[in-house]
Amino acid sequence: MGIDISRTTVTLDIGTDESPAEAVTWSLGPRTGFGLGDVVICHGTPWSSRMWLPLAKRLARDHRVLLWDMPGYGDSITPAEAAPPVDLVAQRRRLAALIDDRGLKRPHVIAHDIGGAVALGAHLFEGVDFASIHLSDIVTLTPWGSPFFRLVAENEEVFAALPLALHRALVHAYIAGAAGPHLPAGWVDELARPWSTPHGQAAFYRQIAALSPAHTAPITARLGAVRAPVRISWGEADPWIPVEQADRLAAALPGDVDLTRFPEVGHLAVLEAPAAFAAEVKGWLSSAGDP
């Protein structure tokens, strides 16, 4: 069975006074047949949809898969004068608008890092129903936000004015620090690439400054109201969000929540342990069934 892959740009009007924002999307699916349900993948920060393409291609043998760059990330970075709001509330509304725009009915969702807050926010506050939710090393419970986050929030203009070469070195070190010892060579360069231009430099600090625990606290308070089966996976060596948060998250969600831990894996299991992570996700989708 072949796989169709298309790349498009969609305008997401989130129904507020904010200007509509454009998001680059990747659609992948089986060339024949109807597949086994729709899957939406939500990336985190400072990542983009491209890091999920290898997994998406595996899943697209059996599912229609939709990847998207949140506005302000990856190929959806815009010049500062045209930059849309990039806070978590705006992003969750855009996810709801994207699912509506594509006519998806109760898709499965795979979410990582702040993508978890975006997906859960769309579900709990924007009324989006999911067939199942797979959460990987997500940002939702407190504490989150490193001292570096706070430093940027207080000095965004200073960081945005760094010489580009210094900025690139900082981004490379920051991204490399997220992973354990098994991140393949070349991925740090690829993950840093969107942020390594003048527009990317401004966007990098803008999105950090816009992220706030004030936007995840309401989600945490309503975790017991999640209406879909949830699976959690976590890197045991995650240096950004300790694995103990996985247990706390599972306890806060309704019902029995399965939890998979990946030994010697940091924050980026989809890249650090791609075969094991793909098997985990495919097993979850199989057990969750069709929508």
Automatic annotation (TrEMBL):
Residues 39-279 form the AB hydrolase-1 domain. The keyword Hydrolase applies. Signal peptide: none annotated. Pfam families: Abhydrolase_6 (PF12697). Keywords: Hydrolase. One of its GO terms (molecular function) is hydrolase activity. The keyword Hydrolase applies. This is Alpha/beta hydrolase. It comes from Brevibacterium ammoniilyticum. The lineage of its organism: Bacteria, Bacillati, Actinomycetota, Actinomycetes, Micrococcales.
